[in-house]
Fold ABC transporter substrate-binding protein.
Amino acid sequence: MLIKSWLTSFAVLLGLSQAAQADILVGFVTGLSGPVSSIGIPNAKGIAAGQAYVGEIGGEKVRVIQLDDGSDPTASTRNARKLAEQDKVDILIGTSGAPQTLAMATAAIEMKVPMIAVSPIAPVPSGDGGPWVVQTPQPTPLLVQGIVDHMKARGLKSVAFIGFSDAFGDLMYESLSASAKAADIKVVANERYARSDSSVTAQLLRALAARPDAIMLGGTGTPGALPVIGLSERGYKGPLYGNHGLISADFLRLAGKAANGIICPTGPVTAAEQLAAGNPIREVALAFRAAFAKANGEAPTDSFSSYSFDGWLVFVDAAKRALATGAKPGSPEFRSALREALFTTKDVVGTQGVYTFTPADRHGVDARARIMVQIEDGHYKLLP
């Protein structure tokens, strides 16, 4: 009787162990602390919303292991390695900030783990076996083209750039330079500042001395408010263009009235209720808001959480097709199947766009992923 009872208990434990092994493991890295936490905390809330929206895939449970990189690229790399090598996750999602995400992506490629980036990054080498990383943020040139088109329509001929002195600032400036040149608009200043700086006075004075027709901002989140406040204090009344990284409650809180009038390119979710009724993104964007409220007990007030939510939707779609191959979660074969599935993603509707990834296109979105909005008293008004 004791032997039979022991065998029964062993069988139950074995079954539980096998079930646990069948769980799909997601390694999620974000900046819950440090200078990029105003992005990282919303990223984490977006993943929570994704779990509330879809928590099981093909009968398999999904478990998320979340780590804080403290807004430090070195920690981003270290966390990615821990998740892949020790926790044996099937896929990586992260992180907040372009330098941190680039560091994480480099590690993911080296370890041959598929990854969904939720911050914009420059192209990374494919590595063995093909590309491993897709991203949900719109390509910077697509967004910046909206700014240049708007400037050209207003007859503006010159623009000054004030942005971060890091990979994100580089992406924004390079995109502006290329689009402006094609539109015969001259970039007359390229001023940079660190996210941790407490003053940008010198940069502002140099930019204003160039007498630009407009100024474009290449900062995000709370540090992105610094030049906005400085320009307002100096009485700047000219056109001011932002970017999708300024769609943030923290930015609005810090910038206050100084933010009024800023025109930003961003994703459709920012003005979901203002989209046409037949727009497929509208339905998903409104569903995201409901899932976010369910998971976090509050309404979303940023755009960063929607990028990680879209990352979850892309992951869910890919995981369904990877499971259909017969590969088991936790195995190298499943990682490879997930990679293959990511790069054959087709018409997955998210909050920021409609995603179709290929080995030649890690962004996966088209012009439907961009709208133009203007900040008015803490709200984002959809522009024609």
